[in-house]
Protein 1
Amino acid sequence: MIAFILSRHAPPHQQQLTERSLLMSFPHIHVVHVQPRGMAEQMNSVLSLTNDPWFLTLEAGEMVRPEMDEELMQLIQGLKEPVAGGIIQYSNLHFPKPGSSPVPRGPLLWFRDAVMARPNAGFQEAACFPFERYFLLEKQYELASRYEWLEIITDSLILSPLQTPFWKKETEEWKFLSPLLQAVSSRTTGVGTDALPEEPMVTIVICAHNDSAYLPWAVRSVMAQSFSQWELIVIDDGSTDDTKCVIQQLPKDTRVRTYLLEENCGKSFALNYALERARGQWLLELDADDWLDPACVDTLLEAAQDRPDAIAVCAGHVEWTERMNKQLLYNGVKLPVPPHSSRSLIDEAMPVAPRMFKVAILRDHSGWNMEAPFEGRLYEDLEILTRLALRHEIHFVFEPLYHRRIRSTSITHRQQFDTYRQWRTWMLDQIRKSAPIP
């Protein structure tokens, strides 16, 4: 049997304590220390080369008591059909249970063949999963749709005394991430088998330009929606990285359509390209490096039904700051701030996401403005909202339904005063020509 010890930046002596306790309980176990970067990749590499049917995962600092070996062997020998593995349940009141952390510990025992079974073989690697510290839980939830998880009732596992640093905001992070992990896992099974017979109610549009590292996570969030009567249009806007290859590897779902633009034409052009092909009554924008809450489409549509005069429905979002290693840190909830007039949208210059528009109204207004400064490549979100707000009601939902990634390598054009001032002057002139400023 293999035992993986996840160091997660734990001091060396904590890793050594875990290893020593394992060897006392399992004298013939093969211990593998997993380094903090690329944990899933390391484990997948080892698992691809072994035939051992079972393996363990422990956090550095955890310790097992000698009786753990016999307990697990009895559990395994009593199995009558394949399972995913085993999750710890604590038996005695005197044994310390997990502390204040809201995050489940995750499985202790894993069945290798279940983990490595296709189509989702192995653990989700960091390139497609921006929350690497939860990769074990992600796999646990994914396997739960196909296998049973056993409860290991024991007090033979002593938890690590190490705590997650406060600056990682573990409670908030888990609050917003856990619904997506569980929703993704419960809805990915069978993807690509049958299309829904109904016409889509919502067209979700992703315009990608050199976003190969982010696109899979955005698409996963679409697949996880609680409302399933959608279609997804993915447009590769002249990417020069491997976005095209990533698109070809997306789930084979007949609700997903992809298009390739040979040249980079800009966001407004790509959105109009999608608008021409949209079959839904509503169009929802999703940036390729962002993702949706599982209830996003459902909640926006419910709000639209409550306000039949609204031609657009927007909501709040959660901000995540991308670190240099591509992992994300929670940065707070951003809710819409009234009033929502055309002038306030320009003056505040704050990102509004998500944005869902009535397709018929977008077509009546000729979609996104290619004649705007910078060929509609900048501030296209503010331009369309401001233009529509002059003549129509935009409804806002005051809860976060979208997750926005703040990339460390990107340029926030709203912070470039001269660029935004030029666009703002032009936009105010357009408003004056159209109607008095509200």
Protein 2
Amino acid sequence: MPLDLRKATVNYPRALAIEVGDAVDLGRQPPGRLVDDLGMRYSLQIEREPVQLEYLVLPEAREIRVAVIIWYP
């Protein structure tokens, strides 16, 4: 993975966590596409990058967990 892409991929979850937290606090759906029936797991592509993430929203713990990172070279 190129260095610039690696930096963008590492920094993205921090920004995502802030965005997800705001959505949860406001009672809105977090960013991405819902991929389970429980409303906890979401999938999204990092804008302008060949990287896709799947993450879990854990509102009681006030955290997200990135479960999958896929890089399309």
Protein 3
Amino acid sequence: MTLKIKGIALLIAVMALLAATALTVVGQEETFTGVVFEDLNGNLTLDADEPGIEGVMVTNGIQVVLTNAEGVYELPVRDEMVVVVTKPNNYDVPYNENLVPQNYYIHQPNGSPDFIQTYAGIEPTGDLPESVDFPLYATEVVNDFSFLVYGDTQVANQQELGYMREVMAELYDTGDEFAFGIAVGDLLDDPLDLYPQYLDVMSLTGSPTWYVPGNHDLNFDSTNDIYHLETYKTFFGSPNYSFDFGQAHFISLDNIRYQVDFPGTYNGRLTDDQLQWLENDLALVPEDKLIVLSMHIGLTNFVDRDAVRHQDSTREQVYEIVSRFDNVISLAGHSHTLERMLTGEEYTPEDPEAFGWGEIPFDQFVAGAVCGSWWGGELNTFGLPESYQRCGAPRGYMVFDISGNTYSERWKASGFAEDYGMHISFDVERNAARSTFVDLGLVSQDHLETLIVVANVFSGGENTVVEMSIDGGDPIPMVRDWNARDPFVISRTGALGHGTRGDRGQSMHLYVADMPTDLEPGVHIIEITATDPYGQVWTGLKTFDVWASN
């Protein structure tokens, strides 16, 4: 499937020039208007022969309206706002040379406040133009498509930008395969002047990317939460927006609340204005659509499940707002783990004061991290950090396949074959805080009764069926164990690792089984098969040698 992108490489400077010269200022009026139109000649300007488009959503950041039969909309003026058009499923927006959607108009008359100093903010926009218009381009409606989800790319310097460039090279020119990508925050690791180079790398895919900010994409010199994304907005526009593709409605949300009193800290939460905008947006969406929510901090999180700031404290309000929809999923990053909190799952902490989940009302995904564990760990054959994530999965990205309002998903490990879906190791103690067992694939018969097989199934979840077979024998069920640890990854990032951060090994997708005790001396092979709810099958093999007991 080829996504038809018009307006690629049209410079934003042209739009600014047109706004300054072709539009007149209306001054301080209570409302403003504009036209959403089909840009037949691709010049970004409404010409006399270009028709307006009816039924398109436009927002001022709180209120949301539909255009009339002539493509005209009217919205209340806010002192500062980003006006955003929602891409319909049968039209496309312009993209700049880095394939960033140009679906917005920033109204910030005085520009960024003076305290935004470290990195460039928004230049003064002056008064609103006479008409805030949005060009769109007719496209084919595609109900079956695939898209990518990039968890934390989080580059901090030129070296890490180079690592990322090599990782993204495997997606070079895949626009025919993937309609777009969604980057769910922590694009950078604080140095916001890397955005231009970062976007050059992201454009290698040949398909657009829709962006969400993370807690490392902030202006830390802001004295309040209102202006914490000034540099981000200059490159990406509003952090809160929606777009349609096929039978899915995608919503992006900034749920990072900057804590002014404690510089560099944050909480996961939506503001009242954001919740009102979310409700207003969804009020205009048919109930049979698939709703895809994207944010940086997950509504829930497994590895940081007892920490309030690493989950969204307004999730119950979100649950209520989306409750009339039967098909909802959420996407997040932040914790550098690959997690699936599926409908009906719940977590009740042992400590009654801790922050539990309750019952999950719809499937929620933490989409891992492109950088793994912050670009740390052993260097592989290609000079790139192995950088296993905190859950033990390799660094990489998620792939979603959409058909109508249904979906399937899978994890793609960077640098590995498409069918690489697990690694297998042995341990001698379940739930050990840190395994001391060295898995050399050599086992004494005396140790078989204490040996445990551990499979880290990257795309595993509650409804994944995992079985192991030894030497082609009958399948043996493996059980998902939230308290298990991954001895393979602990050995790589613990005793052997260097430059890693965080606790690697605890995971939602570890499956365990006891080793059979009746194995004869000699070489044996374990085959593990994992079948997910979508019918996708992942297999892994491991050989080992049993020594005769003395």
Protein 4
Amino acid sequence: MLDEMDRPSRFSPQGSFPVAQDASCVGRGLPFGTKRVLILGASRSGTSAAQALLGLGLEVFVSDRQPLERLPGLREVVAAGASFLEEQGLGRAWPEPDLVIKSPGIPSEAEPVARARGSGVPVWSELELAYALLPNPFDAVTGTNGKTTTTALLGHLFASAGRPVRVLGNIGVAVTSVVGQVEPEVELVTEVSSFQLEDTHCFRPVVGIFLNLTPDHLDRHGSMERYLECKANLFRNQQRDDAAVLNAADPVVAALGVELNRRCDGPQVLFFSVEGRSAVSQAPGGASQLVGDQLVAWVEQGWIYLSGERLLQVKEVRIPGVHNLENCLAAATAAIVRGLARDQVAEGLASFPGVAHRLQTAGVVNGVKYVNDSKATN
């Protein structure tokens, strides 16, 4: 962790953010007395959650709208002892669960979710379940854009420095898939979406990265306010020995940092900005002093700066675009917080090849460069 910084004077941003800690969270583990668990959705995360829970000797039910014969990934889980319930008949065959695990694609207003909550049964995301079952440090990355690249890059920084790490989450690997498979010291770098964060209650990453916020998933969340509320769950349970890494160039994310600073028991708030220190000093809304005092990584005159000193030249970074520079700054800040040396961070940034199908140069034909960005989601 970086040396503790003096918390600057506060000011009131427009609006407020849901960053108060959940008082019911006393640590990791399943709710007391949990014996029977219902998993809604037989997706990759749902199937992985079922396997983890079966490994604990719990009674597991999995429900999905598709019949079992169309769910090849679930057959192994059923063979291992899980019970399958088709969604259409769930109302008649409600298994009276002690805990419900909801797959990210299932909305909160779905009837089984409402029934569980109406009966006082906790409803968790697979991310929350993984946090309850794993003692490892979580480094979590969220934002509307850039999550996958930043997650992969941070994992690369740890790996190239010799730090044991697994890259998980919305990037395509269920978080619960490593339950019982990794040593406690392994860093779990996890891409987390608003859908995954929506049903977290005690999740507490040692580092939470928030890249940006633009309109997205409003058909699910209903409003930007609710979308932000889900994203802000990333920091809800963080404490003073944790870190919130935020983009000073995004006004909503920067204002969230102001709010987090108001919490006397909140995380250390650290900012990055591709716009440089001079641009941050002119930030509107009274945030300039706050952001300036806590700015850790920025770009200026062709150099990436980290903790007040030049780290490497921008031209040494292999992934193209200003947005990828922001991803580099975020990952570098998180890496230095987690104890990597400056030279390890610099070497990792320079050697990162990027993510497959994300702004990859496919070739040059007749002087025209073709770029493969087929995995872009918006």
